Amino acid sequence: RVFLRAINQYADMLNKKFLDQANFELQLWNNYFHLAVAFLTQESLQLENFSSAKRAKILNKYGDMRRQIGFEIRDMWYNLGQHKIKFIPEMVGPILEMTLIPETELRKATIPIFFDMMQCEFHYTRSFQRFENEIITKLDHEVEGGRGDEQYKVLFDKILLEHCRKHKYLAKSGETFVKLVVRLMERLLDYRTIMHDENKENRMSCTVNVL
Q: Which of 76, 2, 13 has the alpha carbon at shortest distance from 39?
């Protein structure tokens, strides 16, 4: 809780002193996002790994601090305005790590950041190729590391499709991208499940699907 309060004070200072065009500090903002995501993903806050009694005790005393800091990260991202492009594609990985935390409200609040990144890159380059390449690479790594689940795949699909379909220029390419990533996620989750299967043919078939 002490760390959370400190990070929030750091965030206030960034917004007040280091956000406008003349004083913008890329390294400080970068440090903030990496620090906040490291806080959110630390072992001691992953409540689903605790017994129900311990989880209830923590929630009762402190609430879910991952949700608190996650909402703060989301607000800080949107505060960046025209500076966002400076964080693409480098921030895709940390944001992905945050959205993969198995907390539904946190996921719903933060998955839309991906659409914002697509939109932002598209505004400058008329494509979102760098974002797309980065999320595919990082997703592979994260799912292999044990993160991600069926619920995440469904939310990712639903939220991003809704956003893309409302956008004049991203409707078609956005939908193609979302379908591609969801299909990849399916294959990666299957592959992870089957990795311990004794049947070599099953493992080989999953590997071929991923490829």
A: 2
